[in-house]
Specification:
Stationary-phase Survival Protein Sure Homolog, Chain: A, 29% helix, alpha/beta, globular, 8 helices, two-stranded antiparallel sheet
């Protein structure tokens, strides 16, 4: 099996080392694990691509590359430059430091990498480690992902819905709960949730020269979402698995809107 890895935390992120171990387990001794990850952190860039500027790519080691671009850029670089068109069997993105549940999903570069792979017709899984008070006390804050990641990926490969004939191919968003590995209660298939009153905003600051700068500021991350959704499952100690597509159409509203506008 040939697996392509990327992330949004950057080529030197500890979560990428966890993902590499998971991928090596899945690929086996005869498989290939290739990494094309951002040279610098790209958190929050979503599915952006560097459409208006070129990006530099550098080989750092055996099957290991860094690109000056987004996670989606890295997937494109991996497919069409590094692998020279030899398509991978699977694309894994992560393991992100922090959750990509609920509304975070829409901002996430980790999700963006998996999304680009799906648009390219490839099986893809994004993996993220929810953080919290319990993970702060651990020597390895990725303990849950490290211990359970291989089993979750293998189970999705064996039993997940993949090429079902839909033009927008299915991909998966996996979030590991903010607990120690031994505290993980299981896996729940979950819808994407919504944290109310947890919006992103800005916080202004003045530099020593008097110039005004704005920092993007996130909302609280430990507000539970509705029952049956991702963040709620994570905060209960479960690994959430959310099937996703790139189709943003509100299909449930089509007939009603057509009738209203007729």
């Amino acid at each position: 099996m040939r697996i392509l890895l990327t992330n949004d935390d950057g080529i030197n992120a500890p979560g990428l080392e966890v993902l590499t171990a998971i991928a090596n387990d899945i690929a086996g001794p005869t498989g290939e694990v290739w990494t094309v990850a951002p040279a610098f952190e790209q958190s929050g860039v979503g599915h952006c691509i560097s459409y208006t500027r070129p990006m530099m790519i550098a080989k750092l080691g055996h099957r290991r590359y860094a690109a000056e671009g987004s996670p989606a850029d890295c997937v494109l670089a991996g497919l069409y430059d590094v692998l020279q068109g030899a398509r991978p069997d699977l694309v894994l993105s992560g393991v992100n430091r922090g959750n990509n549940a609920a509304e975070n999903t829409l901002y996430s570069g980790t999700i963006g990498g998996a999304m680009e792979a799906a648009l390219q017709g490839l099986p893809a899984i994004a993996l993220s480690q929810y953080l919290g008070p319990e993970t702060m006390e651990l020597d390895d804050e990725f303990q849950a992902a490290r211990a359970h990641g291989t089993a979750v990926v293998r189970n999705l490969l064996d039993k997940g819905l993949w090429d079902d004939g839909n033009d927008y191919r299915m991909f998966y968003n996996v979030n590991f709960p903010p607990v120690a590995a031994a505290g993980v209660k299981g896996v729940k298939v979950s819808a994407q949730g919504y944290r109310r009153d947890a919006f992103f905003g800005v916080e202004p600051h003045r530099s020593p020269s008097g110039r005004k700068f704005l920092w993007i500021k996130g909302g609280p991350q430990h507000m539970p979402t509705a029952p049956g959704t991702d963040a709620a499952a994570n905060l209960e100690g479960f690994i959430s698995v959310t099937p996703m597509r790139c189709d943003l159409t509100a299909h449930d509203a089509l007939a009603d809107l057509e009738a209203r506008l007729a």
